[in-house]
Amino acid sequence: MSKLKNRLNRLKKTHASSDINEKDQVTSSQPSEVEEWGGVGAVTETTSYGSFIKRLIKIPFHKKVGFYPLSQLVDKAEVLCHLQASESNIQHDKMLFFDTETTGLGIGTGNVPFMLGIGYYTKEEFVVEQLFIRNPSEELAMLTYMNEKFQQFTHLVSYNGKTFDLPLLKNRFVLHRKTYEGEHLEHLDLLYPARSLWRNTLTTCKLSYVEHQRLGIHRVDDVPGSMAPTLYFKYLSEKDPNIMADVFRHNEIDIVTLAVLSIYFTTLFEDTELYKSIELDELYRLCLWFNKMELTDQFQQVYELLIKRATEEDPNYFIPLAMIFKKKKEVETSVFLWREFIELQGHQRMINTEPYIELAKYYEHRKKDFEKAIYYTKEAEQRVYQRISFSRRDNKYVETIKEIQKRKTRLERKWMNKQEKREKMDDVSHPKQIQINI
C-alpha cells in the first residue's frame, strides 16, 4: 500500500511541474506587439462591449463616381419611394447604405459577417464606415455600434439585403442575445428594380457588372467578393492587417455604388433624355414600371418613344403593350396596337397569332361584327397551320388549332343566326306582294 502511495505522489509532483513549465511557455509565446492598422487607414474603436476595427472614408459631394456626382441624390431621393410602393418621404441624409462581407454563404449561425460596411450623407460629404472584427469575440461590440447607427436613419438601402445581409445580421443579434434595433428602418433593396429593368439586357445583375455596364464605374485590380472569406481566414492565421486591404477596398466600392445606383434610378423618373440612349427592352421594362406605379405622365412619355422605336426595331413589343391597355380597359388603344402589329408584320408565315385572336374576341363581343371576327379567326388558323408545317413538334399546336376551330364554328353559327334574323326582319318590314290573276 505504501509503495502505491509513494508512486502516486511522484506522479502528482511530475504533473504539477509540467503545468508550471507549460504556463511559462504560453506566457512567453504570447505576442506583445499591438496590431498596426494604419496601413489600411483604420483605427481601433472601443465600446462598452469591447473593441473592433473601424475604417472611415469621407468623399466630397462634388466628386464624380462613374457618370454621376454624389451630390445628385440631394433633394431627389424622395422619388425612390416609388420603387417600393411606399408613401413615406425619403431624404438623402436619412438613407443608410449597407453591405456585408461574410465567411460564407447562407444565413445560418456558421456564417459570420466579419465586416459591415455602411454609407451615409452628411451636410457636405458622403461617408463610408467599415466595421471589422479581428476575431469572433469582437462581434458583439460591432453589433452594439450598429444599433446606435440605426437610430440616426429612416431607410436602409442594400443590394440583395432582404434575402441575405439583413436576415444574417438579425440572426447574429439573436445569437448574442441582443435586440436588433433597426426594425423602424424601411428597406429599399435595389436588386429587385435592377432585375426588373435589366433581366433581359444584361447577362447578370451582379452589382459589379451593373456598375460597369450602366453606371460607368470600372474597378481596377478588385478582389472578387468570393475571395473575401479566404483572405479573412488567412488574416486570422497570420494576423497581418495588410491582407485585408483589398477586402476593405472592395467593400468601399460596393457601398459607394449603392449611392450611385440610387442616383441612376432617380434619373429614370426625371431625365427624359436618358430614355433615348437605353435599349429597347429597358424602355419596355420602364414602361411597365411607370404603369405599375401609376405615374401617368412618365408612362405616356416612355410609351410614345417605345412605339416609335418598336415600329422600326421590333414590333413584337406591340403585343404586351396592347395587353397593358386591355387591363387598363383602354381597349381601343389595344385594337390600334394589334392592327399596327399585323400591318407591320405583313404576311410573314411565323407571325404571332395572338393579335388575330384578340381582334376576333373584340369584334365578336364588343362590336357584334361576326363577319370580321370570323375573318381574324381564319387568319389565326392559317398561321398556326403554317407554323405546324415548319415545325417538327406538331403536337405543340394541336390544342391551339382545336380552340381556334371551336371559335370559328361558334362564330359561323352566330353569323348564320344573325343573317336569318335579318332576313326575317326584312320579310316583316317588306312583305311580298301576291298577284292575283283574274
Describe this protein's structure.
Pfam families: RNase_H_2 (PF13482). This is Ribonuclease H-like domain-containing protein. This protein is of the alpha+beta class and 438 residues long. It has 2 domains: 233 residues, Ribonuclease H-like superfamily/Ribonuclease H (Nucleotidyltransferase, domain 5, 2-Layer Sandwich), CATH 3.30.420; 154 residues, Serine Threonine Protein Phosphatase 5, Tetratricopeptide repeat (Alpha Horseshoe). The chain has 14 helices and 9 strands. The strands form 2 sheets. The protein has a 7-stranded mixed β-sheet with strand order 1-2-7-6-5-8-9, sandwiched between helices. A two-stranded antiparallel sheet has the order 3-4. β8, α3 and β9 form a beta-alpha-beta unit. α12 runs antiparallel to α13. About 5% of the residues have low confidence.
